Amino acid sequence: MKEQECASFLQWALPRMDMRWPGIRRVRGQVCKRLRRRLRELGLDDFGGYERYLAAHPEEWDTLDACCRITISRFYRDRVVFETIRDPILPALVQTAQERGDRTIRCWSAGCASGEEPYSLSLAWELGVSHGGPEVDLNIVATDIDPHLLERARVGLYSPGSLRELPDEWIAAAFEPVDDMLCLRGPYRAGVEFVRQDIRRNMPTGPFDLILCRNLVFTYFEARLQGTLLERLLSTMTRNGLLVLGGHEALPPNDWPFDRPYGALPIYRRTA
């Protein structure tokens, strides 16, 4: 089956799942590999046959949706963003929490995959900010639709390559070797709660001071759904709460109540 046949099929199928071809186009090789495997499992010869199969078996759309999920993750991905979160964002959130008489900073990692992003936030807090100092806790909720990825996240076992952007002293302090892998020590996992959710249908209860929604909604979903989900994200944010996007993402067109206090970085602050 030629690559173009798969691309044409995706351009037909993605809008029916509220997804965008431009978001999938760069990773279509990985998606098409999964789809060709699925066609072999079903005994189908081509994508035309798969279209007919989808029409006769509507539940197959869930499998197709899973084939189109891209999970590229590593610790401290977009290092400059995480360095900015470590300082000045987290110390500023400590001050804000203390001013409102609160002992908790609430964060949400949306589309957390196998946990590298929320654990990066935990490491930035424990090793870069807290040091047992401020009497404020960091509470992190991490959500993803894939139960297998969430189970991997709870275990906290990673290849050394996925840690390559972390400071060496953080790796030494927070991880222990297990065979040829590295396991995140329990204290750094303790503040992270993993919840299975599809962001298109459910969101955790806020309010959140910091939301990381990177390389998900504003890459893969079509514009109308982006707007709908952004409105819901706004409803879960505290006053002056922060929303972090992926490096190549932007908010959908509209007069959204955000400013960008950190220049070109994809970090948006709620203004109303």
Describe this structure in words.
With 272 residues, the protein is α/β, with parallel strands linked by helices. Helices cover 45% and strands 18% of the residues. It is built from twelve helices and ten strands. The protein has helices at residues 3-13, 21-25, 28-42, 47-56, 60-67, 79-99, 116-130, 147-155, 168-174, 186-189, 217-220, 223-235, and strands at residues 104-110, 137-144, 157-158, 175-178, 181-184, 192-196, 208-212, 237-244, 258-259, 267-270. It has a seven-stranded mixed β-sheet, sandwiched between helices. Helix 6 (79-99) crosses helix 7 (116-130). The longest helix is centred in the first third of the chain and has 21 residues, at 79-99. The chain is globular. The termini are far apart. 35% of the residues are buried. The model has no long low-confidence stretch (mean pLDDT 94).
